[in-house]
Structures are given as structure tokens and as C-alpha cells.
Amino acid sequence: TPAPKVDSATVRFTPHKKYKIANFEEFKKLIHLAFAMRRKTLVNNLKGKYDKILLENILKNLNYLPNVRPEEISVENYINLFNQLNTKNK
Q1: Cβ atoms of residues 52 and 85 within 8 Å
Q2: d(CA 88, CA 16)
Q3: How far is CA 12 from CA 7, 8, 9, 15, in A?
Q4: What sections of 17-69 are H helices per DSSP?
Q5: Predicted local distance difference test score (pLDDT) of residue 35
Q6: Disulfide check for 52: which of 12, 22, 34, 47 has CB 3.0–4.6 Å away?
Q7: Rounded to a whole number, what is the largest CA-CA distance in the chain?
């Protein structure tokens, strides 16, 4: 007492399929690796799984410097990076 003066609401989030990713589980692994050590550069986070030169070349094609940090890349460019890495590794 007294009863709190609080308004409440329910929010529903509905995911939409804006992006098409062929292998979502592998994409999640890439994102997890990219943000594993947040203050490191993206290349340093991913070079254990992918070739460093290949990563730098793909980032250059996406108009990023090799010292880009994971949080500086857009979702669309992560998808592009993932697709290019999967194409080159096959």
C-alpha cells in the first residue's frame, strides 16, 4: 500500500525474413566469432577460421579498411562477407 501508479503494455515482436541466408547456423558462427573479442579488429577475430589475406580482400571490396571493428559493419555487409567467404572456401 498504496497501489503503484503504473501503466503496463504487452509488446509482440514478429521477425521478418528480410535477409536470405543459405546456411543460417554457419552465419551465426561467423557473427559469434566476429564479436568474440569486441575490441579486436574483425580480421583478427576471424583469422583463426579464415585466411587473413582473403578477409582483407573481401573487406576492401566492401569498402572497409582492414582494421575495421565488428560493430562498424552493417548487417547487409556481414551477409555479403559470409556469402563471399563461403564461395571462396568451396
Answers
A1: no
A2: 29
A3: 17, 14, 10, 10
A4: 24-34, 42-46, 52-61
A5: 95
A6: 47
A7: 67
Core vs surface per residue 8-26: b (16+ CB within 10 A) or e:
eeeeeeeeeeeeeeeeeee
H/E stretch holding 75 reads helix 75-88
pLDDT digits (tens, 9 = 90+) for 53-84: 999 999 999 999 999 999 999 999 999 999 99
Q: Identify the residue whose cell numbers are 562477407.
A: 81
Query: 587473413: which residue's cell?
Result: 52
> What is the amino acid identity at position 72?
E
Q: What are phi and psi of 68, to 5 degrees?
A: -70, 145
Asked if pLDDT for residue 90 goes beyond 60, the answer is no
